[in-house]
Amino acid sequence: MVSVDGQAVVLDQTLFYPRGGGVACDTGTLDTSKVRETTKADDKILHALESPVTLRVGDKVTGNVDWERRHRLMRMHTAGHLLSSIFYSKANCRITGNQIDVDRSRMDFNLESFDRTQIEGYVVEANELIRKDAPVKTYFLGREEALKLPDMVKLAEAAPPEEAQLRIVEIEGVDRQADGGLHVSHLKEIGQIQLLKLENKGKTNRRLYYDLV
Ligand SMILES: [Zn+2]
Asked: How much distance in Å is there from the Cα of 139 to the middle of ligand 1?
């Protein structure tokens, strides 16, 4: 353990993935202490514990990530990329926000019409692609090279990070995005996407909630 910041512990290395980019964080344990939340601040990963910190600087700890939760977040995240890719290619939808979580996830996007049948059709298409399956790959590309690729950054508001190398997440034959998150290695791992709810947020703003089955 490197330092204690209130209820939060900082380690010299960790497998815990912090909350960020609209994706929920890992939880788990450090020795016997439950990790309630993992966040990032100034390049440090903060492990917020449920109980008061009794560890001291220099102590060795064993971390355990809740893998069931982690895997579900990975499946939800890749599903989000797949949906946004279809919405973009079919209707030029710009994704304006997302919240990837364990129980249900949310995607906000711009679409002129609010046509349930049309949107339901996109989810059906996503599920067909999952059934066909495709590998999901991650790799690094030079920034210049990456930004030459069409539609690399689909989030309407998000500028690409100011880094020389961009991490690319590619659903082979379907989608490529600059992204730092964790994903499954094959579409099939997602299962099936279930459309939970559609909301009309006025003007062209639409909101979609989904779950996985
Ligand atoms: Zn992502």
From this structure: 14
Flag residues of the chain having pLDDT under 70.
151, 153-161
Last residue of a domain, one of 11, 33, 65: 65
- Distance of CA 9 from the midpoint of ligand 1 (Å): 26
Helix axes 116-132, 67-91, angle to 10 degrees: 120
**Does residue 135 sit in the same domain as residue 190?**
yes
Beta strands at 105-110 and 44-49: parallel, antiparallel or unpaired: unpaired
Ligand 1 centroid from CA 81, angstroms: 6
pLDDT (tens digit per residue) in 187-203: 999 999 999 999 999 89
CA of 179 to the centre of ligand 1 (A): 5
Task: Tell me, in angstroms, the distance from the centre of ligand 1 to residue 29's CA.
Answer: 25
How remote is the CA of residue 167 from the centroid of ligand 1, in Å? 11
Q: By C-alpha distance, which of 170, 193, 172 is closest to 83?
A: 193
Its pTM stands at 0.92
| Three-state secondary structure string covering 153-179 | CCECCCCCCCCCEEEEEEECCCEEEEC
How far does residue 8's CA lie from ligand 1's centre (Å)? 26
- Residue 23: closest CA among 65, 63, 64, 72: 72
* Tokens linked to 46: 């903060």
Q: In the prediction, which pLDDT does 153 show?
A: 61
Domain that holds residue 47: 3-65
Q: Radius of gyration (Cα) for the chain, nearest Å?
A: 19
